[in-house]
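Sequence in, structure out.
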Amino acid sequence: MREKQIKIVLKNSLSIVLMVIILAGVFFAEIGKTEAPPVCGNVLLVNELFAATGITVKEIKLQVWGQINNTLLTNSQDNNSQQKSNAAKQKAQNINVVKQKVNPANSMANSMANSIVTENISIVRTYEKFRQTFELNPQFQTVEKDYSGFYEISHLEAKKQGSWQLCLQEKQLSEKREEKYISLLLTTNSVCYAGEVYDLLKGELSDLGVKQEIGITFCGRLNGKISGEEEKRITGLMQKSARAYYVEGVKNEELTSLSFYSTAVEGYLEINGQKINLNIAFSYNEEEDCTYLYVGLPLIFQEY
């Protein structure tokens, strides 16, 4: 009888242990899910801030402007310059519109295309990489040279998911050194597309050595001119959701712009010794009789 009781106790104890193990596994699995970093990083974070207020997102802008790390050509690159030039010429066949601000004549334009290919291979290759990564149509590109000697490849295209403005500039400083810049603006109303581009863009900019943060601006619209108390309420909800603390701000009759810092935001700017990575602004448009809400990371780069 005693042996039977011991067996029953052991059996119940094993059942309890197994149940604890199963529950612990589920618990830690859920922790793993909640602590996993968001796929779209800062884009999803701003979307969550809007969700906290119940305000609908009307427009999203991703923007970056920065210098591409200067490239010092090595001897091996110099020796292979002719091969690279030939390869770049093949790629340049996709360039359909070529113009020169100084002289728009066709002969000069053709000469410019050859000059860009032979003297500025790197931005042609960079453009091709961007075009393929983001599935841009080559027929919407132009090539220019301005008075200061900068070559420029620009791309303006309205896609189903959003409109693109991409510009690459390059100037030869010496036989082996060049100065290069990139400017990009994507306008869309799709959070998913903005997040996808944001992730891809981070990788592309890292490869180019561009250190500037990607500017993200979400815009919403509220009817009429909202009160100061309503501005405080909306700002408070966003500040709480982002776990941010107030840094500085300005306010007048038509505009309120507030800057914050949050450890939940990826990256930051340092201004006057203070970290800033979240910008919330309200702007009243008298003509439309509405108030626009802008939320930017790390700042709102567009006019508002």
